[in-house]
Amino acid sequence: MLLPFYQNEFLEAGCDEAGRGCLAGPVFAAAVILPKNFNHPLLNDSKQIKEKDRFILRKEIEETAIAFAVGMVDHQEIDKINILNASFLAMHRAVEKLTIKPDFLIIDGNRFNVYPNIKHQCIVKGDSKYFSIAAASILAKTYRDDFMAAIDSEFPAYQWKKNKGYPTIVHRNAVLELGFSPYHRKTFKVSNPQLSIF
């Protein structure tokens, strides 16, 4: 059972990202402020939910949330500042775009770059503990999936519509055979798919 809030003193937004472990495409993040009475039996960490249900949940979250926003950092920025900093920057961009400014952020994970003038708490596996982080994970994942599906037709050999840029065997084989596309993160290593470590 997910919890509604980490604390009750301040207006709280949950933040999460999607696409950190991908070889191609941007990292997306979302920030979500939910109403006090929010509850949803299906809402959980986006990785635990079927794709079609994620898009149903996205619509419900966007209709119900007090405020929500999505931020993105593209593959070129990722190569410049590294994927960890890019994930934090994507979250910052999402928070910046919120129409209502929160006083407190709860972040999925164990690290975060401080957002100016807003307190925060990092929560390991927070997307399976708090509704607002789970909601943010749904938005980040579905908006990123939409992006990867949209660019799939430009480079169909990599099968981004299926793998969303993650290092599947098909994706890695395509990179080894064809090289990087303009959307690939050049600082990410791609090794033989037969090896257990990539």
UniProtKB/TrEMBL annotation:
The keyword Metal-binding applies. A divalent metal cation binds at D16, E17, D108. PROSITE patterns: RNASE_H_2. Its cofactor is Mn(2+); Mg(2+). InterPro entries: RNase_HII, RNase_HII/HIII, RNase_HII/HIII_dom, RNaseH-like_sf, RNaseH_sf. The keyword Iron does not apply. It is an enzyme of class 3 (hydrolase). It comes from the Bacteria. It holds the Pfam family RNase_HII. GO terms for molecular function: RNA-DNA hybrid ribonuclease activity. This is Ribonuclease HII.
